[in-house]
Amino acid sequence: MSENNKNDNKQNKKKRSIWIFPASVFALYILLFLLDSSKTMSALTYATRLFVSIIPILAVVIIFMFLFNLIDEKKLKHFIDGSPRFIQYMAMLLLGTLSHGPIYAWYPLMKEFMDKGISNGSIAIFLYARGIKLSLLPMLIVYFGFEYAFVLTVVMLFFSCIQGFLVDILMKNPPQTS
Fold first, then answer.
1. Are 49 and 84 in contact (CB under 8 A)?
2. Average pLDDT estimate for 18-37
3. Residue 92 falls inside a structural domain
4. Residues 6 or more apart from 65 whose CB is under 8 A from it?
5. Is residue 78 part of a domain?
6. CA torsion sign, 108 to 112 to 114 to 118?
7. Confidence of residue 58 (pLDDT cuts 50, 70, 90)
8. Class of residue 98 by CB neighbours under 10 A (exposed 0-12, middle 13-18, buried 19+)
């Protein structure tokens, strides 16, 4: 069997396996509908209302994620390199909040920032601000309310700045490695 056929078979299996979970959920709903139609309809109605209430917030999150992907990394590095500490803090706060994906994917960029002279506190701000998950914000608002989500987000932003400031104070003269 040629290499292309193997790749095609893998892609076909992957395409089919994507539908296993939705098909299973659909079959489960049909089974539950046959057992108790009123509760199943109630659950579907609740899920639909929840989905409709999340759509506007989810749209904003998707727009932010799209815009974040348009940022030119070289221009961003140049902007952060030549900025005063306060601007670095605010830029790293914004970037940390907008960043997504696994944390280890961001380590090379943070290392490059450190090599260019960006403070340890700015990097700490970025890492702390990553705790704000924009993609999970709609769920947070639905379950806990807008006020709670807003206060939690503001407190996390505030304490990420405090943490960065403290790291800069404590790491004023970081130990040199040989």
1. no
2. 90
3. yes
4. 98, 100, 134, 135
5. yes
6. negative
7. confident
8. middle
Give yes or no for residue 82 having a pLDDT over 60.
yes
How many domains, in total, are found in the chain? 1
Q: Is residue 121 part of a domain?
A: yes
Q: What does the buried/exposed string (b/e) look like for 128-154 if buried means 16 or more CB atoms within 10 Å of the residue's CB?
A: bbbebebeebbebbeeeeeeebeeebe
* pTM for this prediction: 0.57
Q: DSSP secondary structure string, 19-48?
A: THHHHHHHHHHHHHHHH-HHHHHHHHHHHH
Query: Which whole number is the average pLDDT over 42-71?
Result: 80
Its domain, for residue 89, covers 72-170
Whether 148 is covered by a domain: the verdict is: yes
Distances in whole angstroms, Cα of residue 73 to Cα of each of 16, 70, 116 = 37, 9, 14
Q: Residue 175 to residues 93, 153, 167, 168, 169: CA-CA distances in angstroms?
A: 26, 34, 14, 13, 14
**Structure-block tokens of residue 52:** 């409709």
pLDDT in tens, 127-148: 999 989 887 888 888 889 999 9
Return the pLDDT at 167. Answer: 92
CA dist., res. 176 & res. 178, Å (int): 6
